[in-house]
Amino acid sequence: MYTLTEPRLTEAKPILEEFRTILHSKGKIDAIKFEWRLRKCLDVGTSRMKDLAEGLSKIERYRFLAVYYMENSRESKEIAPELEGVLARIYGIKSYHHPELSSKRAAFWDSMPKEE
User: How far apart are CA 111 and CA 115, in angstroms?
Assistant: First the structure.
């Protein structure tokens, strides 16, 4: 697993802050552009982005940004199977296929702080 170390976090912070501000003010970001900029900054491939997103989701400040990326990073709009468990834990359910997925996901997004 690719670990989000303190030096990597420091290097990526300007990008993370830029996209976090957009997400918290507009409610959405260009997930593909976000991925491209992070990959270029950290010199990682697509497969490492899943590990980075999981690491970011453990940092309160970037949790919503990481979840948005996990939900929207694929053009097919399907969640990558390896991220389903991560998202389920964040939403507070046992499985990504839990009957309460929609309501738990909505509650998660309703709790996102808004910024002007």
Answer: 13
Alpha-carbon torsion, ordered 89, 114, 50, 92, to 10 deg: 0
Cα separation, 28 vs 82, whole angstroms: 23
d(CA 26, CA 24): 6
What pLDDT, in 10s, does the model give residues 67-86?
999 999 877 678 888 899 99
**Residue 53 included in any domain:** yes
Residues written for the chain: 116
Span 34-77, pLDDT tens digits? 999 999 999 998 888 889 999 999 999 999 999 999 999 877 67
- Work out how many domains the chain is built from and give that number: 1
Tokens of 103: 């309501």
Please check whether residue 26 lies inside any domain of the structure: yes
Does residue 46 belong to any structural domain of this protein?
A: yes
